[in-house]
């Protein structure tokens, strides 16, 4: 579990993010506070892995908090002011969420954070062991509100983009979720996943045959575009 702390000088904002955290299986809430100095103390003691941090606060702004925290935690900035985005990313934040924050957008930030914690700490607060093993799964939005489906990377054959939707093809199963192919590309580990066409991502581990500009995965054929062909063949040669 990834231990989360929410810092905001507005109580309603704390409540919303606390609720969002409770709905994501790999997150656990260790606290909420309107006092950034109190939050800074907790972070410096190693009490949180990710801080959802407002920027405009009295006593200590979110950007000042970032500099004082000494990178002891990962930070997701939350604010109503887009003009701070560049400075936030220059300080190596995980993500930058603009208020009002939709749950879907929050979940995307949570998945970015998950990718930075190969072995997330248990809820007990014990530190995570050092590991180079990448996360083995992701969560995608299901067909009803607040429904999220865990998908193991090892089960994914290939992914097809359909405008603002994507279809994930697994053995004997197809899952459709509201997300762009580019957003999913940023989430998946590279390799084994590789974009081979404007509409397709494949798992290199699942390719059984390459014939020119066509990949064969189980009984399906996936096209390879000229844009991505050189990268594909380079990775194949390296293997």
UniProtKB/TrEMBL annotation:
Transmembrane segments: none annotated. Residues 3-114 form the Response regulatory domain. The keyword Transcription regulation does not apply. It comes from the Bacteria. InterPro entries: CheY-like_superfamily, LytR-like, LytTR_DNA-bd_dom, Sig_transdc_resp-reg_receiver. The keyword Glycoprotein does not apply. The modification 4-aspartylphosphate is found at residue 54. It holds the Pfam family LytTR. GO terms for molecular function: DNA binding; phosphorelay response regulator activity. Coiled coil: none annotated. SUPFAM superfamilies: CheY-like (SSF52172). Keywords: DNA-binding, Phosphoprotein. Residues 140-238 form the HTH LytTR-type domain. This is LytTR family DNA-binding domain-containing protein. It comes from Hymenobacter aerilatus.
